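Q: Convert this sequence to structure tokens.
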Amino acid sequence: MGRSMTRAIGLIIVGDEILSGKRLDKHMPKVIELLAARGLQLDWAEYVGDEPARITAALKRAFASGDIVFSTGGIGATPDDHTRQCAAAALGVPLALHAEAEALIRERMRDTAAEQGVAYEPDRPDNVHRLNMGVFPQGATIIRNPYNKIPGFSVADVHFVPGFPVMAWPMIGWVLDARYAALFAKGRSAEKSVVVYGAMEATLTPLMEAIERDHPGVKVFSLPSVDQMAQKLHSLPRIPNHHPPRRI
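A:
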């Protein structure tokens, strides 16, 4: 598996429904898949409930990290959606209705009215409330939503998408392709596994340390099996192009 040679990539998953077990998280395995298809790898992930102080703290860390970060969930306009407000608080900037987001939301509302065979009423209270979904931190840019046109947003390298997988996943894929194609598959990589039976992890540790010391760019880790009493020694090299594959 490849890893970005210059940028770390993180994922923040927001929502009480994940932490309570009401819904199983599908975002992390899918993001890993989306990254792997582009020769990249997820470096870290964080789960946060619908608690504004915790969301704000997580986003402050994300903005300060310099990493490429995707945040899923909490960007709607219901009382449990706090991510837009917390992003603004983390940045110390005001919220503002984004003009392009407003146009897309109004377009969606007109489409919905047409599908229902009714007139679009822009001043109806529920339609006015829906515009809150386009209120983003000042300076944000939009991420188009191919599913229902309600956009997400980006600020620098932190990208915010809805919690619904059918919306979030194509939006994340688009951001990767539009913003970070230069990072794709920067170096060759390979993985080799060695199964060692009857060995103790402490016995293997000096060998693992020596491999990493003598071969920069090679990452070594062990996956002990309790049931089988077997040790599995894995190496996950990140090999620069001038290293021949036989050195793995």
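The domain at 188-247 is CATH 3.30.70 (Alpha-Beta Plaits).
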